[in-house]
Write a structure and sequence with these properties.
Distance between the termini: 81 Å
Mean pLDDT: 91
Largest sheet: 5 strands, mixed
Low-confidence stretches: none
Structural class: mainly alpha
Order of helices and strands: HHEEHHHHHHHHHHHHHHHHEHEHEHEE
Helix content: 55-70%
Strand order of the largest sheet: 4-3-5-7-6
Number of helices: 21
């Protein structure tokens, strides 16, 4: 290892990026969908790919406007490149977004803080439980994080360097795409921190970013394009339920996590590097507070963190847009330590920095499929079985996990008890899918049990297929040919 004051050996950044590639991409399409949210992204992609309707996402045949469509568009475009919708095509845009974020954070740290800080920043992102996980999941948050991070970096580049206005326009364009990814909350990660920074430091170039009329026009045109197109076709009232369910309920709902939840999740995700806050925190703050490049990053972390802490609905993934900023700050701190620690630590820190992402890469390359096999074993059996039942009407009873709908590769209407009884009274022949908490009621209504899949999504969960009418009769033997 190199001594303090020297740059890292050129192999270390390349090894880190290679490990990141393995961590994010190895076997990306080899494991089935692992969460309900993945299914909520994959099923609309299936529908968009099959119907060619890129405007109105649909989930199991129903209009699904809860989230804007940018991820569906990217996943559908990727699926057209591969010729089909699959786990790889719906996840690939997120793995690419995570990779772009690691590279952008590395380049920013390299220019601003030096090679050691840049190396540690990249390693901290790759070896981060939440970041690595959502780099491999078909969920919106990683795409939102990449676009918000890019928009913020473009704005900071304009503020900190004597560069042209095109960086402002790039920032607003990326922010508009972020709105198309998950709605107006993207402004909480970019515009609001820039506003606080401008108010605190009275920074002229920051006010130039915030007051740019062409930039705001780009943001409005890009960010509102889909919302306006849907409103013109469906009417503006179409958004009322979405705003209530997906925005207001998450802010003011009753399901609340403890206030310090986000802080605890972030500290655990960045372990052991997050323990650096215990190392001379006051001295670090005194060094950093006069550097506006660092305080801008601190503000960009603190503002969304404080706002989202007040919301009732909390999940670690909601903080992904600030993870690269935290990695930059912690990487900067580690880079400073390389100048002051003993020679033994100068060798140990880079070694740990490389071993941690290597551990994550090894887990995703080898361990993840084995650890979570109980989630998809029954799903894959169900996929094979239902492919052989293409002509039989199939329904779900009361509720059905979106992963079953994805692997069924068809719309599965959901029936309540009254609708099941009506169909039976009509002497209809059909199959009914029921999950654990509805098995008893479905069994009492059905004529027979056709098939059972276990484990299904959980170790002790079951998906049972019940038959009605002729669906209970055994298949006729093939006719003999003389």
């Amino acid at each position: 290892m190199t001594a303090s004051g020297q740059e890292p050996h050129w192999r270390l950044p390349w090894l880190t990026l290679l490990i990141g590639f393995i961590c994010f991409f190895w076997g990306l399409g080899d494991i089935a969908l692992l969460s309900l949210n993945e299914a909520r992204r994959a099923v609309p992609t299936q529908a968009m790919f099959a119907t060619g309707d890129w405007l109105l996402p649909r989930l199991n045949g129903e209009l699904y406007l809860t989230k804007p469509p940018l991820l569906y568009w990217l996943a559908t475009a990727t699926s057209h490149l591969f010729g089909k919708v699959g786990e790889l095509t719906v996840r690939l845009p997120l793995a690419l977004a995570a990779s772009a974020m690691v590279f952008a954070a590395y380049r920013y740290a390299l220019r601003r803080f030096g090679p050691w800080a840049a190396l540690f920043t990249a390693q901290l992102l790759i070896a981060n439980a939440t970041f690595a996980k959502f780099a491999r999941r078909a969920e919106i948050e990683m795409l939102l994080a990449a676009l918000c991070f890019g928009a913020l970096l473009a704005a900071l580049h304009f503020i900190e360097e004597q560069v042209g206005r095109r960086w402002i326009l790039l920032s607003y364009f990326l922010l508009g795409l972020a709105v198309l990814a998950k709605g107006p909350l993207a402004l909480l990660f970019v515009t609001l921190p820039l506003l606080v920074y401008a108010l605190v430091y009275r920074e002229t170039r920051a006010w130039q970013v915030l007051r740019d009329p062409v930039g705001w026009t780009i943001l409005l045109l890009v960010g509102s394009s889909w919302f306006l197109a849907v409103s013109l076709q469906m009417g503006f009232d179409i958004w009322q339920a979405t705003v209530q369910r997906d925005m207001l309920n998450k802010i003011y709902g009753t399901a609340s996590s403890p206030l310090p939840s986000y802080l605890g999740w972030i500290l655990s995700d960045f372990l052991p590097a997050s323990l650096l806050i215990l190392v001379a925190p006051l001295a670090t703050w005194r060094r950093w507070k006069s550097d506006t490049r660092l305080t801008a990053l601190i503000i960009a972390v603190a503002v969304p963190l404080l706002i989202f802490t007040a919301f009732s609905d909390k999940h670690p993934k909601y903080m992904l847009p600030i993870y690269p900023l935290i990695a930059l700050l912690v990487g900067k701190h580690l880079g400073e330590l390389m100048e002051t620690v003993r020679p033994a630590w100068r060798r140990l820190l880079p070694a740990l920095g490389l071993l941690m992402p290597l551990g994550y890469a090894s887990y995703y390359a080898v361990g993840e499929a084995r650890v979570f096999d109980y989630r998809y074993t029954g799903l894959l059996q169900f996929e094979q079985w239902i492919a052989e039942e293409r002509d039989a009407p199939v329904y779900g009873y009361v509720a059905l996990d979106g992963r079953s709908i994805y692997y069924a590769k068809r719309t599965i209407p959901i029936l309540n008890q009254t609708e099941v009884e009506q169909k039976r009274a009509q002497q209809s022949s059909f199959l009914l899918l029921a999950e654990n908490n509805h098995l008893d009621a479905a069994a009492r209504a059905a004529d027979c049990k056709v098939r059972e899949f276990e484990p299904y999504l959980k170790r002790k969960k079951t998906l049972t297929v019940f038959g009605f009418g002729a669906a209970c009769l055994p298949p006729l033997p093939p006719e003999k040919v003389d």
